[in-house]
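Is S-adenosylmethionine placement plausible here? Inputs below.
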Amino acid sequence: MANVRSIAHNVLYRVLYEDAYSAIAINNAVHKENLSGVDVSFLSALVYGVLERKLTLEYIIRQYSSIRIKKIEKGTLIVLYLGMYQLIYMDKVPDSAAVNESVKLCKQLRLYKSSGFVNAILRNFVRADKAYCLPDQQNIVKYFSVVYSCPESMVTELIATYGQDLTEKALRGILGRPPITVRVNTLKTDKSTLRRELEKQGATVDDISFLENSLNLSAAGSIDQLPQYREGHFFVEDAASQLCAEILGAQPDETIADVCAAPGGKSLYSAIRMENRGAIYSYDIHEHKIKLMEDNARRLGISIIRTALRDASSACELPACDRILCDVPCSGWGILRRKPEIRYKTDTNIDNLTKLQYSILCMSIKDLPSDSVLVYSTCTLRKKENHDIISRFLEEHPDFVGEPIKLPEGIDHIIEEEPYCLTLLPGVYDTDGFFIAKLRRRPT
Ligand SMILES: C[S@@+](CC[C@H](N)C(=O)[O-])C[C@H]1O[C@@H](n2cnc3c(N)ncnc32)[C@H](O)[C@@H]1O
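Reply from A.M.:
I modeled the complex. Tokens:
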């Protein structure tokens, strides 16, 4: 039988200390160890759970440890995270199993000297009825930081941008796993047929109020094993990204450029909206991601996507387009549900990032004809990468004007912002955090 705790330990080590991404590291471990069913679920729950609660767990461990967190050997600390996580958040794991398995794990990992230390902390915690203190709410930054496991610098910036209440909503919204949202490929099927077929496979299927041709799936098992997936009847994409493509508004027979396109979700969505008529130029700077887009387009029976390797911050010519999408690389604060580890990577150079985003925007409009549409988007909540970029762009480009976004029923602006901007916060509409701005080059 697979030792899932030991595999989780290994995955966490890779994510926390070797810069691996959680989803990829979990996936690799599942294949390497040949895991299935409950083992996969347990592994995901442990890894995502610990990453999502790391600062909370540290705060509690500190209350029971005689050694400072920074002085605890990395492998031992991960055993403690895992043990504490099971004791606090996993009702189905008996306390005795959480403690004993943690001690056993120390021995398996040859952390012989640590096993007594781990045993004492976890046992004392259980003996104390799992009592722990949280920071005083008078210091709201520290309190949010510990309760929602986000660095204080992140909490401070979010409160400055969104205020305390919306920040708390957003932070609460990044806990737990996101829904699996799919876009129906209306080139091959329709929503009610797909729903019926997926339900027959045992999936629970829900509508999304503001997206006509999309569904949320749960209990669907491994998505890429479903026949409807393999036959290209849908693709997976978060609702916020789908809404972004909806706002881009591609029409049949138009020409579209998607300058930061991989893995291709918004290009695929647009191609379906366009009934596979017209042309979509989907570019990305990373070669290995180009093939991914091509594979997806093929599976969905889409023929109008033309992929190419291209640096969007370069002056390379673009075809004359009706619409252009700059879905730029960003700090990713809106997708912490999917990549919980992002919040601990505090070394992002924000100035370099905003410089790149701004230059992608400026280079992408060089060949954009008058009266064409430009959409700029990010999956972050940082004002510097969102509203500030757009304000500067409009100031420096008087030939562009904001185009009010027509929102579908079921969704509305959450914050006060220009009608051509839309900010989505996790925890409000069960979407990723996202920013979309729609502009138009003035007609001549
Ligand atoms: C936010 S993701 C795009 C997601 C995509 N639009 C979708 O809907 O699936 C940003 C993408 O930009 C790409 N990228 C980063 N720097 C780039 C550059 N200078 N030129 C073109 N693409 C770039 C990254 O490889 C990444 O795939």
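Short version: Residues 140-173 form one domain.
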